[in-house]
Amino acid sequence: MHRLDRIRVAGFKSIRDQTLKLHPLNVLIGANGAGKSNFIEVFRLLH
Fold this sequence. Notes:
Blueprint: E1 6-12, E2 15-21, H1 36-46
Antiparallel strand pairs: 1-2
């Protein structure tokens, strides 16, 4: 099975252009309105 080691998101909701390095465990931390939920929505779309 293939595993993603990073994902780049550009132009999705509040995310202008961001690359996220993926590990077996990832934690998103940020202030309210920082875009954490938008990143989670990206993974829902990939499913």
